[in-house]
Amino acid sequence: MTALLEATNLSKRFGGLKAVDDLSLAVQEGELHCLIGPNGAGKSTFFRLILGRYPPTAGTVRFCGEDITHLQAAARVRRGMSVKMQVPGVFAELPVRQNLVIALQHKFSGPELAREVDRLLALVDLSAEATKQAGQLAHGQKQWLEIAMAIGVRPRLLLLDEPTAGMSPEETYKTGEMILELNRKAMTVLVVEHDMAFVRQIARQVSVLHLGRLFAQGSIEEITDNEAVQEIYLGKGHHHGH
Ligand code: ADP
Ligand code: MG
Questions:
Q1: What is the distance between the alpha carbons of residues 140 and 133, in angstroms, rounded to a whole number?
Q2: Ligand 1 site, residue 152, Cβ cutoff 6 A
Q3: Predicted structure pTM score
Q4: Structural fold of domain 5-233
């Protein structure tokens, strides 16, 4: 079976620093895959390589079997990649609904656009906030709006970089339920996450990055039982960061 996403021997250097170091990782169609690892492990850099925001120093990226290593970011989006990065990027001065219209207007129009926007608002529990300025939303709600904007184009692969950063435990749990629901509806999701309770809630497949390399891979049970994984986490502390 061809993986939906396949990174092979991927590396990214910043001067003398190997942020991503000979990393090979595959995501199968339909998977809900969590990427974890201490701060500085290379998770966000890996995402940027997948998205085409940085050129790799070495290695290849394949998507739906096609070599996309040298494709521009916009071409990857057209092929079905969608992302929500760590720092929220909503249009703060516009209403919530308008944010979604802007995100979806290339794909839908007329009544279909309105229907899609309504569906997404309900999915992320923002129907009651539709006319509110996005900048006035609570932090967690802003993150949900961004998730809705990312999934509105019906991507083949959804990439989420620390979707629960700064959320309360209740918001985090609710975000987990949203992601599980998306995955039940057949969306393939790759999530970078710090919060282990959240990873336990959602993850089916877990990859652990450390110093830019793939350190361990397995089910959530295998990963939480892995003493070497516990050590790299405890060694670096549990603080939340970017
Ligand atoms: P993570 O997301 O796992 O916390 P990052 O991918 O952000 O890790 O960073 C991996 C390493 O690469 C870190 O040591 C970070 O300081 C470094 N790094 C990330 N982006 C850059 C950049 N644009 N220039 C130089 N160094 C970078
Ligand atoms: Mg990061």
A1: 15
A2: no
A3: 0.91
A4: Rossmann fold (3.40.50)
